Amino acid sequence: MELKGKTWKFGHDVDTDAIIPARYLNTSDPKELAAHCMEDADPQFPSKIKPGDIIVAGKNFGCGSSREHAPIAIKEAGIACVIAKTYARIFYRNAFNIGLPIFESPEAAERISEGDEVAVDVEAGIIKNLTKNESYQATQVPPFMQQIIAAGGLINYVAERMKNGGRV
Amino acid sequence: MGMTITEKILAAHAGKDRVVPGELVNVRVDLALGNDITAPVAIKEFEKIGVDRVFDQDRVVLVPDHFVPNKDIKSAEQAKLMRGFARKHRLTHYFEVGQMGIEHCLLPEQGLVGPGDVVIGADSHTCTYGGLGAFSTGVGSTDLAAAMALGETWLKVPESIKFVYHGEMPEWVSGKDLILYTIGKIGVDGALYMAMEFTGPAMEKLSVDGRLTMANMAVEAGAKNGIVPPDEITRRYVEGRAKRPFTFYASDPDAVYSREYEFDVSKMEPAVALPHLPENVKPVSQAAGIAIDQAVIGSCTNGRMEDLREAAGILKGRKVNSNVRLIIIPGTQEIYRQAMREGLFEIFLDAGAAISTPTCGPCLGGYMGILAEGERAIATTNRNFVGRMGHPGSEVYLSNPAVAAASAILGRIAAPWEVK
Fold it and tell me: Of A40, A153, A168, which is closest to B387 when you measure between CB atoms?
């Protein structure tokens, strides 16, 4: 699968309060959350993005709270994937669990400028910068997490295992 | 080659003799925790799995604490959904308003978590229980849903970083200051995916409250867990309180650490983390003078008895500055009652402070003390991100309770010795 879109660039340590401020956490409705996606980092973000756009960020993306509402807001806002130098660990797990594709590539995070068009080969983890005519390799996803993705998320994976005797 | 305490706990819960960093393991979970923000999402995911019961009704704990007592209609709906689930599944440990507390103050107090446990919680500050020598870590709602069904979760065994604290703690320096300086040293991703092991002579003298505060903020350095080797101080705290048997683990002398840091605490003064990251740490004397509008004393980081006593010691016989709102939030009903019995409420009320029922409230900008644009707070909480306590144009400074209390009196960031 290829994800192709225009990039929006953010800095280091984008925290989950910036991705979805807690004042909106009195709901878990994905549409309501999406309407405030990245609001405290860029108030215009929800209105200026188009479906298929891609977020590019620096180190430690998604640090802070465990709120799954953060990747949910990004996914529901129509962002195709996130590319970052590194991720905070809970955000990393959550993104896989809810089916938001994320890629870790220090080189891509460094080289991509806001507005660049990129195409991501999801399976191979290859990120092509169509604007700059460059290519970057994302870090390999651990095999176990690939199984979760292949099953269609953690819940499907667990449901399947429960049918087969109840243990992961 | 020896193992660290974190590796030993994970090995025991994975049914293995040993584990090594980087290894993926399925571990038995002693307790799975959710709150009124994360549990509603977890419950919806749990119901998709297609099982009709949780793995153990004694080991799934739900605590409404973030937006309760319900702050608005939507929050009320979330709390209602969670309450309904707790009743349907006959959960032993659901804590209603009036019995509840801030989850990470409540669970240790109630003896629901203990040394040697593996605990996961859909709240990033679940790492708090490392203060008792448990492995505990925050996860998202979907991971919680899976654990509620299976009683297991998958984890990557983390590498460990060893922190050794030497020396006598000076007056006014607390566990909060040690962890702030530590985060200041390594940065907000300095321990990304790793275990932070807090050791040394100064740790051996630190109270359980102080240790819980330190482990609580391990996530602020990106860590998977923070952990303090359990000892006699731990034993005195958990005996008579623990609802399940507990096990003391200790790191082997030849355990392998990816890095080691040493700190001399005897030369420290209280710390303040400036906006907008917990790593922006300065000694209080370098932050003193910044005018504040609000002071908050409470949260899962510093809402325990020792914290309230520390604040009361500063506030006794003094008045909160007329430009400052001081909000004090005891962490649990028990702490609330104890503070009242000890006469701390008289001191707080005489000083002109507001005392709240237990809630996470202002720490995450939920309610009970939201900041307007341009306002500035000093808080004993754990995060000072943009907009954390309210308007994106407001600011939060993190400190220990004594500094927050002294600042409330002087109307500006102040060291405790400026008022004592």
Answer: A40
Q: How far apart are CA A79 and CA A7, in angstroms?
A: 10
Distance from CA of B33 to the nearest CA of A (A): 12
Global pTM exceeds 0.95: yes
Note whether ipTM > 0.90 here.
yes
**What burial letters (b/e) apply to B128-144, b meaning 16+ CB within 10 Å?**
bbbbbbbbbbbbbbbbb
Under 8 Å between Cβ of A18 and B387 = yes
Rg (CA), chain B: 20
CB contact under 8 A, A158 and B72: no
Quick: pLDDT tens for A147-157: 888 888 899 98
Helix or strand holding residue B293 (H, E): none
Q: Give pLDDT tens digits for B297-322.
A: 999 999 999 999 999 999 999 999 99
Interface of B with A in 120-149 (CB under 8 A): 121-124, 126, 138-143, 145-146, 149
Distance linking the first and last C-alpha atoms of chain B: 51
* Residue type, position B56, single letter: D
A93 chain-B contacts, CB cut-off 8 A:
139-140, 143
Nearest of A12, A94, A20 to residue B364 by alpha carbon: A20
Of A25, A72, A102, the closest CA to residue B387 belongs to: A25
